[in-house]
Write a structure and sequence with these properties.
Elements lengths: L8 H16 L35 E6 L6 H7 L2 H5 L3 E6 L2 H9 L5 E5 H9 L5 E9 L3 E5 L14 E4 L4 H12 L8 E4 L2 H9 L5 E5 L2 H5 L6 E5 L8 E6 L1 H6 L1 H20 L1 H12 L3 H4 L6 E3 L2 H9 L7 H14 L16 H10 L1
Parallel strand pairs: 1-2, 1-3, 6-7, 6-8
Antiparallel strand pairs: 3-10, 4-10, 4-11, 5-8, 5-9
């Protein structure tokens, strides 16, 4: 199983915490006074902002883990925003991201937060899953870091020893970067090493370069003279994160799926309107100080509904899910993760995001 976001509990919390606050709050500082513009119990600009009927039916079980694009779900739970949107949601936090993937594949969840890579891995293996929300793109929290002896361009990576966890998002990012310079994996000395071990070994002087995600980027950069040659901000769309649900949930409870999607955007509105309260909630969940929480604030780009809709509907832009999926499919096969490519028909359902955008207009 691919392990794009499986990191130890404490480091997982740090990874999520470090990237979220500014990204989710539209770049606002928690001291900018924006919280005064709305009451703490509501937000503006979302189709779900109006009070909804009391939730009915069995709770929808949604798994999530520690990543900047997914931690707003904790805010939704604490502030009662699922209830405000009219949907009964039971969140289950997984300190180990891999555990959430396993639970989703085993039918223990109605939905989960996952990368596009890992969702396609599951679908290629025969599982049925549908992406209904694009939460974010990694925008710097995944990086290729090199020693001072390596040049500053991607072309300078030719012939270098580069470590990354094989088959996961940073390996995929590395290959996209190499391809942009006319290089392939055969042009480097690739070493498949788990993310934590790769970061530690690079920091200790091994390898010329390493591909890692935050907070392991911080550890890797402890090597004197080390530098980021390129990161996920240079390749928008390469690493995207999502809320994924089962086809059965969509078939049996489409109205509740819509309310789930509406609750997500209601939550982003609430965070933007209440940055002080949001920062307190998020730093408490992550067991960090607010200052620690913001130290990698720009590493994730969280999408509003209009931008998220573009990821579904655009077929050729940098954040297009269709475009990136067509790059991921051969990567999964060539990496030995899957025997066949994942079918893309039915994988992306833009209708719920479209309905949210239409209602807001």
């Amino acid at each position: 199983m691919a392990r794009s976001r499986s990191i130890p509990t404490r480091l997982a919390a740090v990874a999520a915490a470090l990237g979220l606050a500014t990204a989710a709050c539209g770049g606002s500082s928690p001291d900018d006074g924006a919280a005064e513009t709305t009451a703490a119990s509501g937000a503006t600009g979302s189709s779900a902002a109006a009070p909804a009927d009391a939730p009915t039916g069995d709770p929808i079980k949604i798994g999530y883990s520690a990543w900047p694009g997914w931690f707003p779900l904790a805010v939704a739970e604490k502030e009662g925003l699922f209830t405000q949107a009219g949907v009964n949601v039971e969140l289950q936090f997984f300190a180990d991201y891999l555990g959430s993937l396993d639970a989703m594949a085993a039918g223990q969840l109605d939905g989960n937060t996952q990368t596009l890579n890992d969702t396609m891995f599951a679908v290629a293996a025969g599982d049925q899953q549908v992406i209904v929300v694009t939460n974010d793109n990694s925008a710097g929290n995944d990086a290729i870091i090199c020693d001072a002896s390596v040049g500053d361009t991607i072309a300078d990576l030719k012939g270098k020893t580069i470590a990354a966890e094989p088959g996961v998002v940073d390996h995929f990012l590395l290959l996209q970067g190499l391809a942009s310079a006319g290089l392939a994996e055969s042009d480097i000395d690739f070493r498949g090493v788990t993310t934590d071990a790769a970061a530690a070994a690079f920091a200790g002087g091994e390898f010329d370069c390493v591909g890692v995600f935050a907070p392991f980027t911080v550890q890797a950069l402890e090597r004197p003279g080390s530098k980021v040659v390129f990161d996920s901000a240079d390749f928008p769309g390469t690493i995207s994160d999502h809320i994924v649900v089962t086809p059965e949930l969509i078939k049996e409870r489409p109205e509740d799926v819509q309310k789930l999607v509406d609750a997500w955007y209601l939550t982003l509105d609430w965070i933007e309107a209440n940055p002080d309260e949001a920062l307190t909630i998020l730093s408490d969940v992550a067991e960090l100080t607010p200052e620690e929480y913001q130290s990698l604030a720009d590493g994730t780009r969280i999408f509003d509904a209009a931008d998220a809709l573009t990821t579904f509907t655009d077929t050729s832009g940098p954040t297009s899910l269709q475009r990136v999926a067509k790059l991921i499919n051969p990567f999964l096969v060539e990496s030995g993760l899957t025997e066949q490519e994942a079918p893309l028909d039915g994988l992306f359902d833009a209708s719920f995001t479209q309905a949210n955008v239409d209602a807001a207009q």
